Every structure is written in C-alpha cells, then in structure tokens.
UniProtKB/TrEMBL annotation:
<protein>
    <recommendedName>
        <fullName>Luciferase-like monooxygenase</fullName>
    </recommendedName>
</protein>
<dbReference type="GO" id="GO:0005829">
    <property type="term" value="C:cytosol"/>
</dbReference>
<dbReference type="InterPro" id="IPR019949">
    <property type="entry name" value="CmoO-like"/>
</dbReference>
<dbReference type="InterPro" id="IPR050766">
    <property type="entry name" value="Bact_Lucif_Oxidored"/>
</dbReference>
<dbReference type="InterPro" id="IPR011251">
    <property type="entry name" value="Luciferase-like_dom"/>
</dbReference>
<dbReference type="InterPro" id="IPR036661">
    <property type="entry name" value="Luciferase-like_sf"/>
</dbReference>
<dbReference type="Pfam" id="PF00296">
    <property type="entry name" value="Bac_luciferase"/>
</dbReference>
<feature type="domain" description="Luciferase-like">
    <location>
        <begin position="1"/>
        <end position="302"/>
    </location>
</feature>
<comment type="similarity">
    <text>To bacterial alkanal monooxygenase alpha and beta chains.</text>
</comment>
<dbReference type="GO" id="GO:0016705">
    <property type="term" value="F:oxidoreductase activity, acting on paired donors, with incorporation or reduction of molecular oxygen"/>
</dbReference>
Length: 331
C-alpha cells in the first residue's frame, strides 16, 4: 500500500494568507523526502478558510523544487475553463516535470454560486463536462479529435515523450460512473463526505469500468487523518479541524484557529455532530492512524490512500506525515 498527500493551503488565524502557499511548497519538499508517492493540490475560490485557488500555478513551483514525487491537481474544476487551455497548462507542467504530472478534474464548483458565475457565466457549463473530459484527454495525449469536431487539427503544446495522467475526482456516483465509462483512474473524496457513499461509488466505478485510458480499474481515496506523538496531543490538535467543521455546518467560514483557542460553546445539535465527527476521525498516534488507514484500504480494496491533514501549526502537519511515513516504511 502506498501513501500520497492532498494539501489545500489552509488559511490560519493570525497568519498572512500568502504564508499558507509557501508552507504548501515546503510541505511538498518534505513529503518527497519522506517517500510519499504523489502530492496533490485542491482548487477552491473565494473561501476564507482555503486559499489554494490555482493548483496549476502551485504545481509549477513544486515541480521546480522536487525531483521524483508525482504532482497533481485535485482538482481542476473543469466547467469553469476551456479544456484546451487546461491541456496547454498541463502540457507545460509535463515539460517541467516529465512523467510526474497528474491532471485530476472535477465537476463541482469549488465555490459558491456567485463566485462560480464569475468564473464562468454560463449556468449550464457543467452539462458539457463529459465532452470536456474527452476533449481534454485528446489534447493532453496528442490524440486527434473526431471528424467534424471544431477542435480537430488543433494541438496543445509543448508535446513530449510523456503526458499528464488524467484522473476523475468525485464524491458521488456521477464521477464514479463517468470515470468507469472513460476507463480513467478514479479518486473518491472520502474527507468531504466522511466516507458516506464511498463504498457505493467505488463499486459503481468498478462495475461500469470499460477499458480506455487504463486496461483495468484503478481507484484511490482521499482521507482526512492526523497523527501525533501521543493520542492526547493528536486530539488536542484536532480541535482546530473540529471547530472548522462545526462552524461550516452553520455557514460560518474562516481561518483555522489554533487548537488552544478553537473551543467554543456548542449547542445540542452541534454536540451531537461533534461526537459523530470524533467517532469517524482518524486521529491518534502514528500506529493507531496507520492501522485504521490499512483497515479502510482493505475494506474498500484500494492499494493507495491520499492523506489530507489540517493543523494550525505547519510543524504539527509535517510531523503527522513523518509518523505515517515511518509506519508505512515509505522511505
């Protein structure tokens, strides 16, 4: 089983937002040294809690600072953009880091409705998502589009000996079925749904899979996890994430609070959600979290897990990845 990383450049209270971007760069270098397989970056817009808005730009900076780790988007929210322009961007990235680029795409807006309208005023943009995926694959791989397609004869440059690997991302059955139909690798956002619907989506993906980009289905899951040197410390650090999740349910978004300031009075409904969140959370020592990750991977029949970790202190985040790397003997 291999481990990978998803980072979102989370905003932190009392820290300039641009520092979160630089911390992501440092984390990518750290995780490469630890032996992680991939380093993925998310795309969100106009959120005070997540400041990673342009994964393709950040990927270029990481490519210049690393040598072996795969670098990817998790993902590009394709309905906002021209598939041709995305293909060009990722062909350039593949030139910077040949054979190391993952192009993960999704259909979700990664923002609120008003922000999505500013990115693409067409309210039906997502209806064209399947066609965009087909076009994108042709342009990133150098294949020709069908007769009659307006893009036939148009090519995304620069071309090279390698090409970005296209991934489908999702948290529902729609993306799973589309990934299966196109024969693409598929990543389920377990951390968004707290695992709800994950097993069903993976089953749908495998059942609907037709050979295409791949001969056999290949799936991974993106899981939130936090390890520390003691269980007590891990739960203390988890307080920042816990507060953010509870606040989000009532429409309150903001930077991540330091754990010593994250506690507030919760109402009865919030307390119930807090207990549910703690039951599902993968939090503890390195050994405890590793055991739960292995059990989940075995249950879902995946041989790779992508780990996302939020902490207010970047040192605690780096330590969490160190502990898991040691448990899985990555280096």
């Amino acid at each position: 089983m291999s481990l990978s990383v998803l980072d979102q450049s989370v905003a932190r209270a009392g820290v300039p937002q641009d520092q979160s971007i630089r911390d992501t760069l440092a984390l990518a270098q750290h995780c490469e040294a630890l032996g992680y397989r991939r380093f993925w970056l998310s795309e969100h817009h106009s959120l005070p809690s997540i400041v990673g808005t342009a994964p393709e730009v950040l990927m270029a900076a990481i490519a210049a600072r690393t040598q072996s780790i795969r670098i990817g988007s998790a993902g590009v929210m394709l309905p906002h953009y021209s598939a041709f322009k995305v293909a060009e961007q990722f062909r350039v990235l593949d030139a910077l880091a040949p054979g190391r680029i993952d192009l993960g795409v999704g259909r979700a807006p990664g923002s609120d409705y008003r922000t999505a309208q500013l990115l693409n005023p067409d309210p039906r943009a997502s209806d064209n998502f399947p066609q965009q995926v087909q076009e994108l694959q042709a342009w990133v791989s150098g294949a020709e589009l069908p007769e009659g397609h307006p893009g036939r004869g148009i090519h995304a440059h620069p071309m090279g000996a390698t090409a970005p690997q296209l991934w489908m991302l999702g948290s529902s059955g729609y993306g799973a079925q589309l990934a299966g139909h196109f024969g693409m690798p598929y990543a389920f956002a377990h951390f968004i749904t707290d695992g709800e619907g994950c097993a069903q989506a993976l089953e749908l993906y495998r059942h609907s899979f037709q050979p295409g980009l791949l001969a056999q289905p290949a799936a991974t899951i993106c899981v939130w996890a936090l390890a520390a040197d003691s269980e007590e410390e891990a739960w203390h650090l988890f307080g920042s994430r816990e507060r953010a999740r509870i606040d989000r349910n009532s429409g309150r978004y903001g930077p991540l609070q330091p754990p010593q300031l994250a506690q507030r009075a919760y109402n009865e409904g919030e307390q119930a959600y807090r207990q549910q969140l703690r039951r599902k959370a993968m939090v503890g020592t390195g050994a405890q979290v590793a055991a739960r990750l292995r059990a989940l991977a075995q249950e879902l029949e995946v041989d790779e897990v992508v780990v996302i970790t939020w902490t207010w202190d970047p040192a605690a985040q780096r330590r969490s990845y160190e502990l898991l790397a040691r448990e899985f003997a990555l280096a």
